[in-house]
Automatic annotation (TrEMBL):
It comes from the Bacteria. This is Chorismatase FkbO/Hyg5-like N-terminal domain-containing protein. It comes from Candidatus Thiodictyon syntrophicum. Residues 65-195 form the Chorismatase FkbO/Hyg5-like N-terminal domain. Gene3D superfamilies: RutC-like (3.30.1330.40). The lineage of its organism: Bacteria, Pseudomonadati, Pseudomonadota, Gammaproteobacteria, Chromatiales. InterPro entries: FkbO_Hyg5-like_N, RutC-like_sf. Pfam families: FkbO_Hyg5-like_N.
Length: 346
């Protein structure tokens, strides 16, 4: 149970722990993401759980990243989005197949069209439920680095995402949500998100050009995400750090060297944490108090990445290691993190 007053808690649980009906098992759960290969999630739990086909690298069968809150909750569905909300936070997720045929004359590829439609549904939902802002998006789809319709699929995703922000009158710079975008082994586009009624602050990294300002050598549209989002909910400062890679300025560093890429990514996370602490001086975010998800392109790099993480932070941390394609072909690792909430490893 989430202690009274706890606005947000993160648990990493074996999927079997979720198999009971939500009312006896996880009354406080907003929802979450289950990782395994192949994907499994127990929908009988009555929770919005995104079943992502993505191999876990430490030998576990399946793990669910579950977000909980002490507030009273209700569930709903909207255009294929399964969501659950309290008074402060809403978690939702969806799985969308890419259209097999696009409308003639529609210049959009199927992933671009599916992405735009998914994001437009999400924005419609949160507006209708009275939520201003999305704190965090998680994006998973197959073949991120594959070219189709003359464009790399990650770049198609970026166009669809940005068009949805624009068509809903949302800014595509500044206080945009934190995010990650990774290649799954699944067949469909999957998006999960955490929305709040409060206004979050987008945090940028002084070592990196903001992703929304990337030059067009990385695609015709810049990605719409901030390096982190910071929000105060019921007196708690919460920090959601986007997927972070070995990029300085806008360039990939250390191509082919997974150790150096891991260290560079952690330098970037440290810089984001420092920037967040300047904006929320009381929060005291520290690398050793965050929960991490680590996406590794090649399973054989697990040992190197885990060692580099431990050495850099200097203490064991809550971390889940997954095999996933990263959105630039020369990136070998991407690390996301969050903090300020309770963390209870399963
Ligand atoms: C980067 O910094 C690495 O498109 O939502 C990291 C986090 C990355 C989020 C996204 C992409 C995204 O550009 C890639």
């Amino acid at each position: 149970m989430t202690p009274p007053g706890d606005i947000l808690r993160l648990d990493y649980l074996p999927v079997a722990r979720l198999a009971q009906p939500a009312r006896d098992g996880w009354p406080d759960a907003l929802g979450g993401l289950c990782f395994s290969h192949p994907a499994i999630a127990d929908e009988a739990a009555g929770l919005p759980l995104l079943a992502v086909d993505m191999p876990l690298l430490e030998g576990q069968d399946a793990i669910c990243e579950v977000w909980s809150t002490a507030e009273a909750l209700r569930s709903g569905r909207h255009q294929g989005i399964h969501y659950r909300e309290g008074d402060t936070l809403l978690f939702g997720c969806l799985t969308r197949d890419e259209p097999t045929r696009v409308t003639p004359g529609d210049g959009r590829g199927p992933l671009q069209a599916a992405t735009q439609a998914a994001y437009e549904s999400i924005f419609e939902l949160i507006q209708s439920r009275g939520y201003h802002a999305i704190l965090r998006f998680w994006n998973y789809f197959p073949g991120v680095n594959r070219v189709s319709h003359h464009l790399e699929r990650y770049r198609q995703f970026n166009i669809g995402r940005q068009d949805a922000f624009l068509s809903h009158g949302r800014s595509v710079i500044g206080n945009v949500p934190a995010a990650c975008a990774l290649g799954s082994a699944g067949a469909a586009l999957q998006v999960a998100f955490l929305a709040a009624r409060a206004d979050p602050l987008g945090i940028e990294n002084p070592r990196q050009i903001s992703a929304y300002d990337y030059p067009n050598q990385y695609g015709p549209r810049s990605p719409t995400f901030s390096r982190a989002s910071l929000v105060n909910l019921r007196g708690r400062d919460l920090l959601f750090i986007s997927g972070t890679a070995s990029i300085v300025g806008h360039q990939t560093l250390h191509a082919g060297d997974v150790d150096a890429q891991t260290r560079e990514s952690l330098h970037n996370i440290a810089a984001v944490v420092a920037a967040a602490n300047r904006r929320a001086p009381g929060a005291g975010f520290r690398l050793c108090n965050l929960a991490y998800k680590v996406y590794i392109r090649y399973a054989g790099d697990l040992v190197s990445v885990r060692r580099a993480l431990l050495e850099f932070i200097g203490a064991p941390v809550a971390a889940v290691f997954l095999q996933a394609d990263v959105c630039r072909a020369d990136l070998l690792v991407e690390i996301e993190a969050s903090g300020g909430h309770a963390i209870a490893p399963g």
